[in-house]
Amino acid sequence: MRFEEFAAARLSAVLRFAGVLTGDRALAEDVVQEVLIRASRRWDQISGLDRPELYIRKMILNEYLSWRRRSWRLLPVGTASDIDTRLAPDHAGLHAERDALLAELGKLPRRQRAVLVLRYYEGFSDSEIAELLGCTPGTVRGYASRALAALRVELAPNGLVTAQEEHT
Amino acid sequence: VRTEDDLRAALVALERHAPAAERVVPARRGRRPTRRWRWLPGLAGVTSLAAVAGVVTAVTVTSPSPSHIPNGVGLPAPGKPSAPIRASLTVKDVLLRAAAGAASATASGRYWVVSDVSGSLTAAGPNARPFAADQRFTPETYRDARSAGNRSWVLPSTGYTTTPASAGATAAWRADGSPRLASTTGQQQAWWQTGGAVGFFGNANLTLAQFQALPSSTAGLTAAIAKEIKSEQIQAGTTGAYQRMFEICTQLLKWDPITPAVRAATFRVLATIPGVSLAGKITDPLGRTGYGIAFDTGTGPGSTGGQEEVLVIAPGSGTFLTDEYVVTSLPAGVSAAPVSGALPGPATCPAGTKAYAFKASNWCFPPGAVIVKPGKNWHILVKSGIGKAVHLDTPRLVVSVGTVTWYDAVVQAGWTDAAPALPPPADQFDQATQGKG
Question: What ipTM score was computed for the predicted complex, to two decimals?
Answer without folding.
Answer: 0.72
